[in-house]
Amino acid sequence: xxxxxxxxxxxxxxxxxTYALLSPRARRFxxxxxxxxxxxxxxxxxxxxxxxxxxxxxxxxxxxxxEGHPRRRLWLLRLSLASNLGVLGLFKxxxxxxxxxxxxxxxxGVDASRPVLEIVLPVGISFYTFQALSYTIDVYRRRLPACxxxxxxxxxxAFFPQxxxxxxxxxxxxxxxxxxxxxxxxxxxxxxxxxLVVGFFKKVAVADVIALHxxxxxxxxxxxxxxxxxLALYLFSLQIYCDFSGYTDIARGSARLFGVELMQNFxxxxxxxxxxEFWRRWHVSLSAWLRDYLYVPLGGNRGGEWRTYxxxxxxxxxxxxxxxxxxNFVLWGxxxxxxxxxxxxxRSRRPAPPEGPVAGWLGTxxxxxxxxxxxxFFRSPDLARAADFCGVLSGLVVGGxxxxxxxxxxxxxxxxxxxxEWLARPAASRPPLRERGWAWRGFAYAMxxxxxxxxxxxxxxxxxxxxxx
Length: 469
Known about the structure:
This protein has 469 residues and is mostly helical. The chain has 2 domains: 6-183, no CATH class; 184-273 and 392-469, no CATH class. Helices cover 71% and strands 0% of the residues. The chain is built from 18 helices and no strands. It has helices spanning 6-20, 24-43, 45-66, 70-107, 125-140, 150-158, 160-163, 171-179, 186-219, 226-256, 275-281, 284-298, 305-323, 327-349, 357-379, 383-394, 408-423, 438-455. The longest helix is centred in the N-terminal third of the chain and has 38 residues, at 70-107. The radius of gyration is 23 Å and the shape is globular.
């Protein structure tokens, strides 16, 4: 079930209204049933897969807590890793590795045929797999007690507001909230309203509208001029931010209707003054997961300069592959790995960053363009068209003259988004809407609703970009 669907607009108020009438224990089973319905709406067959892998982790975590022998505890952890990563690898990466192997064989002159097997990627598998893995690893490290209720743990994995595309919550943060579900307060409802309205505005009135304008330039860059491709690149940078942060806003707003607070996943990342700060602001839950469960176990910044660079590159390459089973995503992750290595090398030789507003603006501008350049490989259908895009953009390849039409349907929502982002900037002393007077809030919500109805893509359900991951 998509957030931006008519079914969800009926589903969410019904679940929230019923939730308010029930006891804490009954609320858990209501949310669990609603989460199963939400996920099964897309394809009920994969509901069993999610439940089965969750039950394996539940049992392994209980065994880890009671087991005292270090070697047996390590084998239990390996069993959890094999279960989760095995399922993820089969459904997400089987075709990628087969096709890559066939391409390598063909390059070596070996004729091989692809097995006739089409595997459908379950929605959200990357997100709930990482969430489950963090739980078992934390229990193994004895940082977290094992959950003793099956229904409680299943709700932690399947909680519908953040099931499909995060945030990737830590058990230490989400499990206690789900253990004793409370009725939402007035502050919860205010926050939920703001997050839902802003989230739907970002998705329907900005991201989905921009998507209509960037599809052709990325699909066929050779028919566009360099200036048009640069505009398309800027637009896609805005689209993916609004699409994913809009999803997160809707997820956080939906959760607040049930008295649950999810972590903030975006902190105005395009305002970062360097690439390390960008990754502290963009997809915060994934960045923290990669740091704590991949980069640090690899050695982190221990062991010398070159090992630190190696660990950064491996983390970002695997982070790129997590995003999708394609060499485009591996290259995208590799670029960000190179950015982070170069940043760390530079900072090791110039520990004091430049000061002053001009240096800050230049750092932000440069960081944005590095990130935008990497988006070419993220968005392009394949490496060949990414190369064409870069060739035309750089002037090395002559492109056509087909333009990227931009009208008021794009310009006005983007201007309104800029005002929202300015009000919500980190230096602001108050949240942009919820702490203002009721008349001001009502006017702002009405304006955003009108913008959704006037400018938004309402005639079809456009899937969120991160649903494919």
